[in-house]
């Protein structure tokens, strides 16, 4: 039984199943991480969005409270600045008594202003000494308002001071303001006490999100409640900075908004249950999406694993009959069944083909050496040099000095171009210019007086090494395209000069030929820069080859590449830069 189980497990240890297992594990990890991140981000986003919505609600509600407070402030201010009130208190300050007519005038003024507000329960007017002037009676200010609020009103110099709830009746609140006598340098003339109906600041349901049970509370500067719609004291939680609170076993989120005008604080309690419901919906959607994605990835993994292992099986069958290349035996290692079989088959093939590979290798090596020697014998440069030297002496003996000089120039030209096993890729500028001089001498034999040239190079630059045959193709181009097709005399100038304030040397090859049209010049420069000159056959091939060699030899230096300058009828100039330190 145990042996059978081991055999089954061994048979399952295939490359296909290994790939499939890795893919599925990675997919599970990815889906888990993505799900956690999505849930966290969505929950955070919903919380922030809800806070913004509630903040907006609180701002709107605060605006309404400020408007109501402003109405009370405006009416009370109109009352204390009324001429009748001012004159009455001024007469009282002057020691005059208040007769019946003055009392009636005072009553009419107060009643008229009282009618403009539903939130004011009553006005009470007191003298500077605290004696009540209206309503008439013997009541003292100290029995209604604590002395600290009277002092506060005095310091505020006429601004409305919110006192708070009436200790005898929590349905009302008091506010007080000092009456400043305008005809007596705004001195203290008395006090106006405003009794306000708390329900005037009722928190309407319309300020809340419809369909949701939210709690609201309006607190004064001392965090004492002015009005609320749930009757729960949460001052402690506000002072301690709590973000959430439990009311009747339900958790609520606390959002508060303070008013700069009144100093009041509007508190809104939003149930967190709706957030959990929304997050739960998102979580379920994420799980469903993850399950669908996992199923799709499972099918894709099976297909992909099959596609990966099928070529390996095919390769195994192919390698069983392979008998080519030089191979080495590979040691067996514990792996999947496919790899073990592949390794065994490969080693079998190595044992059968190694001997044959050795024999074929030796035969091929011998044949290559023979062919190489034959080629070397066919184009031995020494034979060419000796022949040209013999021709030179023959012409010299016959008095053909001009032809003899041409032969010597050709011999030097071939020796420079073909070289030998000791010659390298780098030559001095002096050697390159001598080679160009020989080439021009040979070309002058064909072109005659139509060809003139000038070579300019400072002596201090002659020892700088440059790549072999980097200038000569440009000279050939200048003769072929600038002078050869013209019947007039042409001049070739090769100029080597040091660039000022730079570590570079500028090489210029210039001719006075027909020049190049502007559009063709732009196209040719762009093609050289992009190594694409297929449309400019001979001329373009020489230029792009030189440009490519410059890039290869000086690829680590920031040099300007090969470029053309030309004007129609005024010739063409080819320019490139090389470092003044040369190269190897």
What would you note in describing this structure?
It is a single chain. The chain is built from 14 helices and 17 strands. By secondary structure, the chain is an alpha+beta fold. Among the domains are: 121 residues, PAS domain (Beta-Lactamase); 73 residues, no CATH class; 128 residues, Heat Shock Protein 90 (2-Layer Sandwich), CATH 3.30.565.10. The strands form 4 sheets. Strands 2-1-5-4-3 form a 5-stranded antiparallel β-sheet, sandwiched between helices. The chain has a 5-stranded antiparallel β-sheet with strand order 7-6-10-9-8. Strands 12-14-15-17-16 form a 5-stranded mixed β-sheet. α2 runs antiparallel to α4, α7 crosses α8 and α10 packs across α11.
Can you lay out the helices and strands and say which pair or pack?
Elements: H1 2-12, H2 15-80, H3 83-93, H4 100-114, E1 120-127, E2 132-134, H5 147-156, E3 161-166, E4 169-181, E5 187-197, E6 215-219, E7 225-228, H6 235-239, E8 244-247, E9 250-258, E10 265-271, H7 273-319, H8 337-378, H9 381-397, H10 401-418, E11 426-428, H11 429-447, E12 451-456, E13 465-467, H12 472-483, E14 490-498, E15 504-511, H13 518-529, H14 537-553, E16 563-567, E17 571-579
Helix pairs in contact: 2-4, 2-7, 7-8, 9-10, 10-11, 12-14, 13-14
Oligomeric state of the chains present here: single chain
Rg, Cα atoms, Å? 53 Å
CATH architecture of the domain at 452-579: 2-Layer Sandwich
Task: Count the beta strands.
Answer: 17
Provide the helix percentage.
40-55%
Count of individual helical segments: 14
Query: What amount of the residues lies in strands?
Result: 15-25%
Structural class: alpha+beta
Spatial strand sequence of the major β-sheet = 2-1-5-4-3
Question: Kindly, what is the distance between the CA atoms of the first and last residues, rounded to a whole number of angstroms?
Answer: 75 Å
- Biggest beta sheet attributes: 5 strands, antiparallel
Average pLDDT: 76
Low-confidence stretches: 206-211, 374-380
**CA-based shape:** elongated
In CATH, the topology of the domain at 452-579 is named: Heat Shock Protein 90
- Can you identify the CATH superfamily of the domain at 452-579? Histidine kinase-like ATPase, C-terminal domain
The CATH top-level class label of the domain at 452-579: Alpha Beta
